[in-house]
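C-alpha cells please, single chain.
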Amino acid sequence: MAACEVCGNDYWGAFEVRTQSGDMHIFDSLECAAQRIAPVCEHCQCRILGHGVEVDGRFFCCAHCARTSMNKGAEIRDAVGAHPG
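Here you go.
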C-alpha cells in the first residue's frame, strides 16, 4: 500500500502520477491529484480540470476568464461548444 501525499490515506488502490518534468506523485483519488497538480485559473482561481485556455503562457479555465484578464476580446475563442457556422 501507499499513502496519498495530499490526505495521507494509506490505500491499496493508490496510484502513481508522473508529470512531464519527471516528478512522481502518489494519490488515493483524482480529487487529491487535482488538488496537488491541476493548474489554477489566473482569473477566477478555480482548478483547471478540462482543456482550459493558454494565452501567452498564462492559464485560464475558459475563454471568458482569458478575455477578461488579457483584454484581448474576440482574439480568444472558446473552441469547446462553439457553433461551427
